[in-house]
């Protein structure tokens, strides 16, 4: 049973909510949410109780995803303006279509992509922090903090296994799509190829951000928040669908054109669904972070090996 869900939930005059069965991770999440609502109502803070009661609704989740995108754009805009000024200041032009394509390729260099990635992560965490602050809840509500200590060793082992499984399954899907004539190299061209001609320090910084920072932030958003909230409040199958679907859709922004990246959506969806399964199975976000680190780390390791060849 999850350590978070050991306190009985009581409303005004209500009988205690039944305890979830051992191993019922979603039941533990639901009980934690009910307890938070009851605590706010018991203190007479109806506004806070209403906020906590609405947590996990489709509207709440949709608003927070839109806010995350808006925060990313707002934080990234100054970087784009600086990059544009540097590009023009170094004698480049982007008046023609060919020059605009060259400018887009220049922006994919790790020197600019790493700050963009970190700003993206900062925007996401800012929205999650705002949501927790509004509901006066700790980070464990999103699976972080003390929640990571719940059977951590088992979670890491599960994550290692599912990380390898995600690589194998996504490769199978990618190869199948490639045989059908789909261009599945868009993400590699956008993220991996620029590493092969970049300075070593820039490559290492980008690999560190992509392998360790991004998995923590993305798993907190897509599994710790979206999947957990929807599974506890709505439907587990829909939680899988929405979490994996938004995970795949957000990664379409990591490239040059939608046409290049759309064929990788099935592979991204499968990876997202496996990460949902990891959290659903263990109740510990450390399993997802580990699997995500393995998946990204293998991709970057392959890129670095090719860079040396």
Q: What share of the residues does DSSP label as strand, in percent? A: under 5%
Ranges with pLDDT <50 over ≥5 residues? 1-16
CA gyration radius, whole angstroms: 21 Å
Count of extended strands: 0
Structural class: mainly alpha
Which geometry do the CA atoms define? globular
Structural features, described:
It is a single chain. The chain is an all-alpha fold. The chain folds into two domains: 1-54, no CATH class; 55-308, no CATH class. It has twelve helices and no strands. It has helices at residues 25-42, 46-54, 58-89, 97-107, 110-135, 152-179, 186-192, 200-233, 236-250, 258-261, 265-282, 285-308. The chain is globular. The relative contact order is 0.13. Mean pLDDT is 85; it is low at 1-16.
Short description:
This protein is mainly α and 309 residues long. Helix content is 73%, strand content 0%.
Keywords:
309 residues
Helix-strand layout with pairing:
Elements: H1 25-42, H2 46-54, H3 58-89, H4 97-107, H5 110-135, H6 152-179, H7 186-192, H8 200-233, H9 236-250, H10 258-261, H11 265-282, H12 285-308
């Amino acid at each position: 049973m999850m350590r978070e869900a050991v306190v009985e939930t009581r409303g005004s005059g209500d009988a205690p909510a039944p305890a979830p069965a051992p191993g019922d991770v979603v039941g533990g999440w639901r009980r934690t949410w009910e307890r938070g609502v009851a605590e706010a109502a018991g203190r007479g803070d109806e506004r806070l109780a209403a906020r906590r009661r609405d947590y996990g609704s489709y509207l709440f989740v949709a608003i927070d995803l839109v806010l995350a995108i808006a925060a990313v754009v707002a934080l990234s805009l100054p970087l784009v303006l600086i990059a544009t000024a540097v590009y023009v200041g170094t004698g480049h032009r982007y008046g023609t279509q060919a020059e605009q394509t060259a400018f887009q390729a220049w922006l994919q260099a790790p020197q600019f992509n790493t700050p963009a990635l970190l700003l993206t992560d900062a925007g996401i965490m800012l929205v999650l922090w705002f949501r927790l602050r509004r509901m006066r809840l700790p980070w464990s509500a999103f699976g972080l903090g003390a929640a990571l200590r719940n059977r951590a060793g088992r979670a890491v082992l599960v994550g290692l296994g599912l990380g390898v499984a995600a690589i194998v399954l996504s490769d199978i899907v990618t190869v199948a799509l490639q045989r059908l004539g789909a261009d599945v190299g868009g993400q590699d061209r956008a993220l991996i190829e620029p590493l092969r001609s970049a300075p070593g320090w820039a490559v290492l910084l980008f690999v560190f951000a992509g392998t360790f920072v991004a998995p923590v932030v993305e798993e907190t958003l897509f599994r710790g928040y979206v999947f957990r909230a929807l599974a506890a409040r709505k439907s587990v199958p829909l939680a899988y669908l929405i979490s994996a679907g938004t995970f795949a859709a957000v990664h379409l922004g990591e490239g040059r054109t939608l046409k290049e990246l759309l064929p990788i959506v099935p592979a991204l969806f499968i990876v997202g669904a496996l990460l949902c399964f990891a959290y659903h199975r263990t109740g510990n976000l450390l399993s997802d972070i580990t699997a995500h680190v393995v998946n990204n780390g293998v991709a970057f390791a392959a890129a670095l090996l090719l860079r040396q060849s």
